[in-house]
Amino acid sequence: MAKIHKLPREIAQLIAAGEVVERPSSVVKELLENSIDAGASEITLEIQNGGVRLIRVTDNGCGIAREDVPTAFLSHATSKVSAAEDLDSILTLGFRGEALASVAAVSHVELMTKTASEFAGTRAVLEGGDLLSVDDAGCPAGTTLLIRDLFYNTPARMKFLKTDRAESSAVAAVADRIALSHPMVSLRFIKDGKQLLFTPGNGDLLSCIHAVYGREFAETLIPVDYTLGGISVRGFVSKPFCSRGSNSMQHFFVNDRYIKSRSGAAALNEAYKNSVMVGKYPACVLFLAVSPEAVDVNVHPAKTEVRFSNEKSVFDAIYYAVKNALSADRSRPAVKLPQNTAISPVRPEKSVLRPRVPQTHQVEIREIPTSIPEKPKSFTDKRTVPAAEANEVQRLEAYDALLHDTEEIFETAQLPDLSVRTAPKLTETTDAVPQKLDTVPTEERDAEPIAVSTAKPELRTSSVKSLDFRLIGEAFKAFIFAECDGKLLIIDKHAAHERMLFDALKKENGNAGSQMLLSPVTVTLSKDEYAAVTEHMDVLSKAGFEAEDFGEGAVRVRACPLNLEKEDITALVTEISGYLLKNKREVLSEKLDWIYHSMACRAAIKAGNDTTEYELYEFTKRLLQNDEIRYCPHGRPVLIELTRRELDRQFGRIQ
Q1: For 9-202, CATH number?
Q2: How many angstroms separate the CA atoms of 165 and 149, rounded?
Q3: What is the pTM assigned to this prediction?
């Protein structure tokens, strides 16, 4: 065993710095907390190159007396703790006395400070933890710290830093949390010369949330104010229908200190149980006021992990606080219609199968001569043509949106009257499953119409891979019933359609094309989600999105996949960002599969949507043509079989 010896001071400082200063955001956190502890009401944070090149923090706090400046950069030097008993009642954000010493050990530091009672300020220069000079300086009351060339003397630490964009996002996340924790402090954040954040500092928490996360997020919140067992809970939580794809927007503060609390997160999620969808998370900004003796913040150098003397009391306080707030809220999701949307009191709404006519034309729709029909709505669309309007149909196009989006030549076809039914030609086919189900086969259009009794509709039959099936109908607008090979087939139309879309998206592998949006959609994210998305823009592009970094924690979407509705874009991008945040290490194919799955689930027809008999027939036929469609991407079966024998047994016909 080697001889035991005492480490030199510079090496000991570098080791200690590794516990406190992990990346630029760690430095920013320590400096901002020191400014708040100094009583500052205005703080300006500026960074360059993600904080590696420069970090500047300026405040109007109490400042540091000149005689205390050399001591301030020594390890374990602090003004906040003087006796062991003080550790039992810590109310300041900092108390270890390690921050300035650790930061100075791995950077070039310049300090300018002045107290209100001093005539001149003080300027100190340090390099690698060594104090080089202390001089007079002209400066206002308060403190300014400049940190340059972070980790210049620890190359190994530099290798673990991420891109400037990622480090800037981490710094922005710290600034957001500090701003939320102290709404009475005005915080200004400048990145590479551009201001990204400014909070008013008026003490209004909702105004601070509005400044940090924007108006849309602030409008989804409901207030919380509750006290139980000596624990006060106040702040805001999101409405149930405004849940998110990750828990990155859950913020908990204990005595104005940001913490990571498993008990708090569990209590919050439990309060929303049966109110949000599985896999969704509510957002919150919650402040807990507890006795300093009931919480231990001296657990980790980062001071974000704490221990409560009674975890159950904290859980109960948060749970009942949120539960009461949700019970008091009577708001419901609101639908905003365009201002120019109007329904004529004379003419019915234009049929989705009629030719398009500009609104400026004041003529009857039937009088418009055109051979180019409007795209008909099919099984994959969310609207269904009313039966009363079917007689007015003049043309029907052959359309395939997902597999052949670039085709713009529509085939015209005369539809038969509703009083007759076209007899399908029974042919065996093994065509691949198409995306749209509204194309009428040519042989069906050319066949002679046959009369059908209105008392009992004829049931269609088809030959699929030598198996005849008979469409029976639909139940609950969710399940399709058909008879095939002596068995009763029950098909979950959403699950089956979801699988079809998922397989088609995987087959296209990002080459299905995109649709440009008339107006771009801006999606506001948490800084962690924002960093994850901006690092994986290639994933969004591969999935069919055209997105760009819009700054300030937002991305702007200019194009989206073909089968995605515009109203789904914000929710889907938020889900994707949450997924990328939690699964950064997954390979590209796994990330794309997850995105395709989410897109397919949103685009597939939902239970309760109306479906015409023809669409049910075509859908069943094409489902049975593909033996590989057995389970939806979630793993649920798309089809179950019920034999005649099982039915006889259920009715007591056999034992």
Answers
A1: 3.30.565.10
A2: 17
A3: 0.65
